[in-house]
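The aim of this short unit is practical: by the end, you should be able to scan a pair of folded records and say something sensible about each. We start with the first protein, listed as its amino acid sequence and then its C-alpha cells.
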Amino acid sequence: MEDDVVILCDMVRGAVEEGRVDECIDERLQGKFPAEEVIPVVKLGLICTSQVPSNRPDMAEVINILGLIKCPESQEEYDNN
C-alpha cells in the first residue's frame, strides 16, 4: 500500500530489541563474520542514523568505536584467510 512506509532504522531497532538482529545481516555473508561483533556494530549504525544530528558520532569517533568492538581473535582468523 502507498501509505505503508518502512523506515529502515525503525525496523532494525525493533529487530535488535526483539533479539532478531540476524534478520538485519546480509545473507550473502553466509555467517562469515564474528557473531559477537554484530549487535554492537548494528547499534553503532543506529546511533549514526539518529534523527538528531548532534547525537551522531563523527567519523573519528566511529573509527574509535569500531576498534573497540573488533575482536582480536576473529581478526587474526580473517587475516589468515
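Turning to the second protein, read its sequence before its C-alpha cells, just as you did above.
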Amino acid sequence: MNLTGQSLKFENGQWVAEIGSFTGDRREMQRLRKRNQQLEEENNLLRLKVDILLDMLSETTAESHLMEKELEELKSHTRRRK
C-alpha cells in the first residue's frame, strides 16, 4: 500500500514501511512515531475504560436480577398469607 509517498506492507500483524520507500525527513518520521505512540496509549486507556464499564454493568445487572427475585418471593409470600 502506498500512503503519502511511503510504501507500507502488513507483516506479522503490523504495518511496516518498506525499506527506502520513505521520502520524508527524519523529523516527520519522529513526529509520526510519537503520534502513533500517543494513539496507542489512548487506545489502551479506552479499552480499560470499556472493561471497567462492562464490569460495572455486569454487577448492576446481577444485583437487579437478585432484587427482582427477592421481590417476586415477597409477592408470593404475601399472596399465600391472604
